[in-house]
Design a protein that fits this description.
Elements (H helix, E strand, L loop, with lengths): L9 E6 L22 E2 L2 E2 H10 L4 E8 L2 H5 L5 H4 L4 E5 L4 H10 L6 E5 L7 H11 L4 E7 H7 L8 E3 L2 E11 L5 H7 L9 H7 L2 H8 L5 H11 L4 E5 L12 H14 L1
Parallel strand pairs: 1-4, 1-6, 4-5, 7-10
Antiparallel strand pairs: 2-3, 6-9, 7-9, 8-9
Length: about 260
């Protein structure tokens, strides 16, 4: 359950755009954008909106996409079109720039950032992220490999290796204050390499890359040092839910997510 001590009125931002180039997930799907891909009989975005709109900590939702008109025209999303707490916003060039524009506009801080393909998002995950990120300027949710493989050994992820384990991103991010802005601006230069873990680590400083490669840093220690460099308090939130790092990036992900949704039902 939502802790009454958590920050009230958190703004959720959902990244619901499409990356350049062909997407094998959309072949034969009948939809033109990933956010509308049917999963469990409903568009991916509908699952995420359901979870966020029902959570007591979420005060407003901003949906960022290149094709806002296409999303608003989908009948499965009609229930949210006139909701005053939900706003559709055209995204710009690049994720970081679009998020910064949203923060400068309708998205009041603090912000919980997620993606339309985070179909398995649950209230428990939101609770874990808010509790773990409370009081910091920027936080990233991660899942340690043993947590995931204990439940879903067939799942393939991109892993970052540190002294205290192998970690994969969970598509949940916390922006707690404007002190996160320099790190978001730095992220713009590595967005296209999001699946090349060590290249991303190195882009934030050779000392961080060396610490990761030599395994002399824990991932939490690396985040703290990185934040200090940018004048912010940065934190890794270790998620206890294995499903937190399972999104829909590949056809095999879609199969696994469908199976998990069926088990939940």
């Amino acid at each position: 359950m939502f802790d009454a001590q958590s920050p009230p009125g958190v703004t959720a931002i959902i990244l619901a755009g499409s990356r350049p180039g062909p997407d094998p997930l959309l072949d034969g799907s009948g939809v033109s954008t990933k956010a509308l891909l049917p999963v469990g009989g409903r568009p991916m975005l509908a699952h995420v909106l359901d979870t966020l709109s029902r959570h007591a900590a979420i005060g407003a939702i901003v949906i960022l996409a290149q094709n806002v008109a296409g999303l608003r025209a989908d009948p499965e999303l009609a229930v949210w079109i006139d909701d005053p707490a939900i706003r559709f916003m055209e995204s710009g060039a690049g994720i970081s720039r679009s998020v910064l524009a949203a923060i400068d506009g309708p998205a009041a801080l603090p912000v919980l950032l997620t993606t339309a393909d985070n179909v398995l998002l649950s209230a428990a995950m939101i609770d874990s992220m808010i509790a773990g990120a409370a009081g910091c300027d920027i936080a990233v949710a991660m899942v340690e490999r043993r947590i995931l493989l204990a439940r879903y050994p067939q799942s393939r992820r991109t892993w970052l290796k540190f002294r205290n384990g192998w970690w994969s991103g969970a598509n949940l991010f916390w922006i707690g204050s404007d002190r996160a802005r320099p790190m978001l601006e730095r992220w713009q230069s590595v967005e296209q390499d999001r699946k090349k873990g060590m290249k991303i680590v190195g882009a934030f400083g050779p000392w961080l890359l060396g610490g990761a490669l030599l395994r002399i840093l824990t991932i939490q220690g690396a985040a703290a040092r990185l934040g200090k460099r940018f004048g912010a308090q940065a934190r890794i939130v270790a998620m206890p839910q294995a499903e937190a790092c399972i999104d829909v990036d590949k056809p095999e992900d879609l199969v696994l997510v469908e199976q998990i949704l069926a088990m939940r039902a």
